[in-house]
Amino acid sequence: MYKVKSNGIHNKEKVSHYFKKYGIALLFLIPFFTFFVIFFIYPLINGITMSFYHYNMVDPSDTYFVGFKNYFDFLFVKEKPIIIEGEPIYNVDGTIMTEKNPSFYGFWYGLLYTVLYCLVIVPVSIILPFFLALGIKKKPYGFKIFRSLIYLPSIFAVSSTGAAFAFLFQNGENGFINHLFGINYQWFNNRFSAWFVIFLLCLYNIGGNFVIIAAGLENVNKSLYEAAEVDGSTTWDKIRYVTIPGIKYQLIICTFNTIIGYMNVYGQMRVLTGGGPADPQHSERPGLTHSIVYVIQDKLTGAGKFSTAGSISAMCIILGIIIGLITTVQLIVTRDKKGGDKYEKKFIQYFQGNSL
Amino acid sequence: MRRNSSNTSKEIASRIILTVLFTIFVVIWIFPLVWVFNGALKSADEWATNPNSFFPSMGYTFENFKTLFVGADQTTAYNYSIDKQPVAQWVLNSLIVSVSHTALYLVISSLAAYAFTFLEFKGRDTLFYILIATMTIPGIVLTTPQFVNIVKMGLSLNLLSIILPGLGGIGGIFLMRQFFKGIPKSLVESASIDGASKFRTFLTVVLPLAKPVLFVQGMFSFMGVWNDFQWAQIVLGYGSKETWTLQLGLTYLVDLNRGTQGAQGVALAASVISMIPMLLIYIVASNHIIEGVAMTGVKE
Questions:
Q1: Chain A residues with CB inside 8 Å of B271's CB?
Q2: Does A217 touch chain B (CB under 8 A)?
Q3: Claim to verify: residue B114 and residue B62 sit in the same structural domain
Q4: Which residues touch A54 (CB under 8 Å, ≥6 apart)?
Q5: Are B229 and B255 in contact (CB under 8 A)?
Q6: What is the pLDDT of residues B130-145, one digit of tens each?
Q7: One domain for residues B185 and B231
C-alpha cells in the first residue's frame, strides 16, 4: 500500500515537473500549432497526395488513384482524345478524334511568358531602385519626402493601382495617354503594348528594393570612398569598385526576391489585360499575357475546379519545385560562414519576399 | 581654403540639380495616383463629355461616391445608366476580414513568439528552425489543397476562408521573436521571481514593451489581407457579389466600366476607397514601414 501511494506521489510530482517544463510552453504554442497543422501541414501533405489522384473535392466517389498521369498530362501530352460522356469520338477512318491539350499549352506557354517577362522586369527592378537610392544617398533637399513618395505606390493593392493604369491607357481617343500623345492606340489589343502597360504597373513594386538598397548604401564604409577619392577614381569607378561590392548582399537578396515575386506574377495581368489578347494563330495557347500563375488561377476559378483539383495541384507542385530551385540557389549564394544564428539571417527575407 | 569653398558650392549646385531631377521623377511617378483621386471627383457627365480634362469644367463633386454607396443620381444624363453594386457590403467585408485576421494573428503569434523566446523546453530552437525552414516552401504549392481544405470544412464563400488560413503563418512569430530577444532577460526573470505566472509576465511585462513590433506586424497583416486579391478570388470569387471583398468588387467594377461612357469615375472612386486605409496607415507610420522593410535587407 505504502509503496503504491509513494509511487502515486512520485508520478504526480513527475507530471507536475513535466507540466512545468513543457505544459506551459504547450499552452502558449497550442493556438499557433492548431492553425499551422490545419492550414499548412495538412494541405501540404494533401496537396502532394492529391496530385496523384483524379480528385473530386465535392464527390468522393469520383476520386481515384492515377499515379503520375496528372503530371504526365500537362508536361508531355500535346494531343488528347475528345471524350464526351465517357466515350471517345471516332473519325470516319476509325481513329480516335483528338484535340490539342490546353493544359500542356497552358503550362509551357504560361511558363515561357513568365520567364521572358522576368528577363525584362527583374533587371529593371534592381537597376532603377539602385540609381534612385544612389541619388537619395546624395541627400537632395527634401530627400525624406522623395523616399516616402517613391515607396508610396508599393502599399496599395494591385487592383487599385491597376485601375489607374487601366483607365490611363484606355483604348480609343478617350484614353488619357492616347489623348496626351494625340494618338488612337489600342494598348491592350497588341501583345507588346499590353506587356508594356503591365511592365509600367509592375514598376510600382520597386519600393521594397529601393528601401533595402538605400539602407545598404548607408552602411557602405565611407573611408573606402575617401580612399578612392585620393586615388583619383572616377564616379563610375567608385560605383563599380566600392558601392556595388559594398551592397552585394542587398543586391543578391533583392534579385532573388524579385525573381521569386515575378515567377508568381498574376494580379497585374488580371486587372489590366484579363490575360489577353488571344493568340491569333494558335487558339490552343493561353492568352498572350498569361503568366503561369494566371493559368493556374484560371483553373482554380474556372468551371472544372471542383473535379480537377488533383491535376491543378500537380501543376502547382511543378511550379513550386521550379521556385524552390531558385530559392536553393539563393541559399547557396547567400550562405553565411559565420554560423550561429545563420538561419535566422538567411530567412528574414522570406517574410518580406512572400508579401511582395 | 579656396578649394574647400568651391567644393561646397559645387556640392550645393549638385544637390540642387539632384533635387530638380527627383522632383520631376516623383511628379511623373505619383501622377497616376493623383489622376485616380482627381478622376474620382469628376462627375459622370464630365467623364462622358470631356473625359480628358484634368481640371473638370463642371467642378469637383462627390457624385461617384454617392453612386457607389447610395445608387445612381437619376437627374444626370450619364450617371443614370450606372448599376448599383453592393459596395458598402464589400467595404464591410474587407474591414471584417482585415481587422479580425490582424487581431487574431497578433494574439496567436505573440503567444508563440513568447514561448520560443522566454520559455525553456527541450528542442525549442530545433523546432523553431524547422518552422523557419518551412517558409522556403513556395506558397503556390498550398493554394489548391488549401482551397480543397476550405471547401471540405464548409467555409467556402464564407469570410472565415480569408481570416483563418493565414493564422498558421510563421512570419509574424519570426519578427516578434527577433524583437523579444532584445528585451533584457532579467526583466522577465525578475517578474517570475515575484511569483507572477508566465502568462501574467507575458501580459504585463513583455507585451507592453513589444508595442512597436505589435504595431509593425499589425500593419503588415492588415495591409496584406486588405490588399489580397488572388486568394479572395479563389474562395469568394465564384459566389454572389455580396460575399466579395472590396478588391474583388473593385476589379469587377474596373472590368465593367471600361467600356461604359461616363462610368470611369465610379471605378476610380472605388479605387480611392480601397486606397484610403492604406494611405492613412502610411501617413501615420511611413517611417515605421520603411524601416521595417529596410531591416529585411540588413546583414548583421
A1: 159-160, 163-164
A2: no
A3: no
A4: A62, A63, A64, A66, A69, A70, A310, A311
A5: no
A6: 998 888 899 999 999 9
A7: yes
Which ranges of chain B would DSSP assign to H, the alpha helix?
2-40, 44-49, 63-69, 87-118, 124-134, 140-152, 160-163, 171-180, 185-193, 198-201, 207-209, 211-227, 230-235, 246-257, 264-295
Kindly report, residue by residue over A87-131, the tens digit of the pLDDT. 888 888 888 888 888 899 999 999 999 999 999 999 999 999 999
Interchain contact A345–B (C-beta under 8 A): yes
**Residues spanned by the domain of B35:** 2-81
Q: Please work out, in degrees rounded to the nearest 5, the angle formed at the alpha carbon of residue A259 by the alpha carbons of B290 and B295.
A: 25
Residues B128 and B252 in one domain: yes
pLDDT at residue A344, rounded to an integer: 46
Minimal Cβ distance to A150: which of B26, B171, B295: B26
- B128/B242 same-domain check: yes
In chain B, the residue whose alpha carbon lies closest to the alpha carbon of A188 is B258
A chain contacts of residue B151, beta-carbon cutoff 8 Å: 57-58, 306
What would the mean pLDDT of A45-64 be, rounded to a whole number? 91
pLDDT for B247 equals: 95
> Which domains are seen in chain A, by residue range?
2-50 (no CATH), 102-353 (1.10.3720.10)
Closest of B64, B138, B84 to residue A47, by C-alpha = B138
Tens-digit pLDDT profile for residues A312-356 = 999 999 999 999 999 888 888 877 644 434 444 444 444 444 333
**From CA A175, how far away is CA A166, in angstroms rounded?**
9
* Long-range pairs of A172-176 with CB within 8 A, sequence gap ≥ 24: A174/B51, A174/B52, A176/B35, A176/B51, A176/B52
pLDDT, tens only, B233-291: 999 999 899 999 999 999 999 988 887 777 888 899 999 999 999 999 999 888 888 88
Burial A311-322 (b: 16+ CB within 10 A, else e): bbbbbbbbbbeb
Residue A28: name the closest of B207, B39, B62, B86 by CA: B207
ipTM tops 0.95: no
Helices B2-40 and A143-151: crossing angle in degrees, nearest 10, is 40
A16 versus B118: the higher-pLDDT residue is: B118
How many domains does chain B fold into?
Answer: 2
Span B36-58, mean pLDDT? 86
Nearest to B144 among A25, A300, A354 (CB): A300
Question: Distance from B74 to chain A by nearest Cα, in Å?
Answer: 24
Burial of A355 (0-12, 13-18, 19+ CB in 10 A): middle
Mean pLDDT throughout B182-197? Answer: 78
State the amino acid at position B95 in one-letter form.
Answer: L
The verdict on A37 touching B (C-beta cutoff 8 Å) is: yes
